[in-house]
Specification:
eight-stranded mixed sheet; binds flavin-adenine dinucleotide; alpha/beta; single chain; 18 strands; globular; 416 residues; 28% strand
C-alpha cells in the first residue's frame, strides 16, 4: 500500500487550494475508508437546542414495568448504534424497548460530523437528516490535518464537494431514536441482568431510583465506550482495556482557521492522541485527548497558545466544557461482540475509527446486530455467531483505519 506522506502539502499562510486533492492509494479497502473521511463559515449565537427545552421525557410508561413486561429485545443506550439496532428490529415487527440513562434529548461530546458513510446509512434507515439538527456551517468540506503549525493536508469528504453534514448530536440522536419505532424509556439506568430460563431479566432504576424489571429474549448493549454490560459479562476483558480522556471546550470567539473544515493537529505536544478544532454555530470548539492518568493541562495549554499565536484564536465566554473516556479496543483490534443472547454494538463493542469517527460503525454494527437477531428469531440460528459473521468486514475496515491514521500521523495514534 502506498500512502502519500504528510510532509509539505499546503502552507496555511498561502492561498488555499481551490480544488480537492486526489490521493493515490493502491489498497481498495483504504479507499473505502477515505470515503468516510469525507465540510464551512459564519458566526451565529450559540444555541444547542436540547438545552433550551424542558421537554417531557420521551417515555410516559411507569408502573407497568414492574409487571415484568416482555420484549423481544431490550436495547441499552439511545445513541446511533442503539437507534440503528432498534430500527432494524422494529421494521421486522419485533417488540423493542430502548432504555437510556440520561434525559432525552441528551448532550453527547462530539464534533458532530456525519461522514458520508454515516449519512448514507442514516438516509437508508431513517430518511434525510432534518434541518433542525444542522448547525452553521451546515456542511464541512473535509478534514484538514496539520502536521505542524504551518503545513497541512486536506482530506475531502467527497469528490463532488457536497461535504458532510455538521450537526448537534443532541438533535441528530434524538431524531434517530424517535424514528426508530421502539418504545423509549429515558432516565433509566441498567443495574443488573440475569438469565431466567430462556429469557433475560433486566433490572433498571428510573429517575426516582425505583426498580423497573423487564424481560426480554435478547439484550443489546449500545452504551458507548463504558459499557456496564460488557464489564459484567467479562470482567477479565475489561481489566485489560486501556483508557484515554477526551476533553472539549466550547467558546464564543473567533479564529482564522477555516470553519468549513474539521482541523486535526497531530503534533504530540498538543495531545497524546491528537488535538482538534471546529466551529459550530459560531462557537470555537477545541479539544484534545490524553491517556487516562496523564495530566491534561500541559497539553491543552500549549494547544490553546498556538491556536492564539498562529491562528488568531480569540476566546470569549466559555459556554461549555466536557470530557469523556474512550478506550483502545479498536486500535488494538479487540472487539467484544457479546455472549449468549447479549450483543454489543457501536463503541461498546469497540467500533471506533481513527481520529474518533464512530457514527458510521455505530450505525452499521447496530444494523448488523438487528439483522442477526431477526434471522435467528426466524430460523433458530445463533444470533451472536451471525453477528460475528456480519461484522467481519466492518472490523477489518476499522482496524485498517487505525493503521492508515498512524501512517498519516507518522506515529501511534493511541499510545495508551
Ligand atoms: C470528542 C469527540 C468527538 C467525536 N466526533 C465525532 C464525529 O464528528 N463524527 C463521528 O462519526 N464520530 C465522532 N465521535 C465518535 C462518536 O461520538 C461515537 O463513536 C458514537 O457516538 C458511538 O455511538 P454509540 O451509539 O456506540 O454510543 P453513544 O453515542 O455514546 O451512546 C451511548 C448511550 O448509552 C447511554 N448509556 C450508557 N450507559 C448506560 C446505562 N448503563 N444505562 C442506560 N443508558 C446508558 C449513554 O447515556 C448514551 O446516550 C466523537 C467522539 C468524541 C469523544
Amino acid at each position: 500500500m502506498k500512502v502519500q506522506p504528510l510532509r509539505r502539502m499546503y502552507s496555511g499562510r498561502e492561498a488555499e487550494p481551490t480544488g480537492f486533492k486526489r490521493y493515490s492509494f493502491v489498497d481498495k479497502e483504504i479507499k473505502i475508508i477515505l470515503y468516510y473521511y469525507s465540510v464551512s463559515e459564519k458566526n451565529i449565537p450559540y444555541k444547542c437546542p436540547c438545552e433550551e427545552r424542558s421537554d417531557e421525557p420521551l417515555s410516559c410508561i411507569t408502573e407497568e414495568y414492574v409487571l415484568k413486561k416482555m420484549y423481544d429485545v431490550v436495547i441499552v443506550g439511545a445513541g446511533p448504534s442503539g437507534a440503528a439496532a432498534a430500527r432494524g428490529l422494529t421494521t421486522e415487527g419485533l417488540k423493542v424497548l430502548v432504555v437510556e440513562k440520561k434525559k432525552l434529548p441528551r448532550y453527547k461530546i462530539c464534533s458532530g460530523i456525519i461522514f458520508p458513510k454515516s449519512q448514507a446509512l442514516t438516509e437508508r434507515l431513517f430518511g434525510k437528516i432534518p434541518q433542525s439538527a444542522y448547525v452553521t456551517p451546515n456542511f464541512l468540506k473535509g478534514v484538514r490535518l496539520w502536521s505542524d503549525t504551518e503545513h497541512f493536508t486536506d482530506w475531502p469528504f467527497n469528490k463532488d464537494g457536497a461535504g458532510a453534514p455538521n450537526v448537534w448530536r443532541s438533535e441528530y440522536d434524538q431524531w434517530l431514536i424517535k424514528n426508530s419505532g421502539a418504545e423509549i424509556r429515558d432516565c433509566c439506568d441498567i443495574k443488573a441482568f440475569k438469565a431466567v430460563g430462556d429469557y433475560l431479566e433486566v433490572e433498571c432504576r428510573n429517575g426516582h431510583d425505583e426498580p423497573i424489571v423487564i424481560q426480554c429474549k435478547y439484550l443489546i448493549s449500545a452504551e458507548g465506550s463504558r459499557s456496564f454490560i460488557r464489564a459484567q459479562i467479562d470482567p477479565e476483558f475489561e481489566k485489560a482495556i486501556r483508557w484515554f480522556i477526551a476533553y472539549q471546550s466550547y467558546y464564543e470567539g473567533d479564529s482564522l482557521l477555516d470553519p468549513c473544515f474539521y482541523h486535526g493537529f497531530l503534533d504530540p505536544h498538543y495531545g497524546e492522541v491528537y488535538a482538534w478544532f471546529s466551529v459550530k454555530d459560531g462557537l470555537q470548539i477545541l479539544g484534545t485527548a490524553v491517556r487516562k492518568g496523564s495530566r491534561l493541562y500541559p497539553y491543552l495549554n500549549k494547544y490553546v497558545e498556538i491556536l492564539k499565536n498562529n491562528y488568531g484564536l480569540k476566546l470569549g465566554k466559555l459556554r461549555r466544557k466536557a470530557s469523556c473516556l474512550g478506550n483502545d479496543m479498536c486500535p488494538a483490534g479487540r472487539f467484544y461482540l457479546g455472549k449468549g443472547n447479549i450483543l454489543l454494538v457501536g463503541e461498546a463493542a469497540g467500533f471506533l475509527n481513527a481520529f474518533g469517527e464512530g457514527i458510521s460503525c455505530a450505525l452499521s454494527s447496530g444494523l448488523f446486530a438487528s439483522e442477526a437477531i431477526n434471522k435467528s428469531m426466524k430460523t433458530g440460528g445463533d444470533a451472536l455467531t451471525l453477528y460475528h459473521e456480519l461484522t467481519k468486514v466492518e472490523q477489518r475496515l476499522t482496524k485498517l483505519s487505525w493503521r492508515l491514521g498512524s501512517k498519516i500521523a507518522g506515529r501511534d495514534l493511541m499510545p495508551l
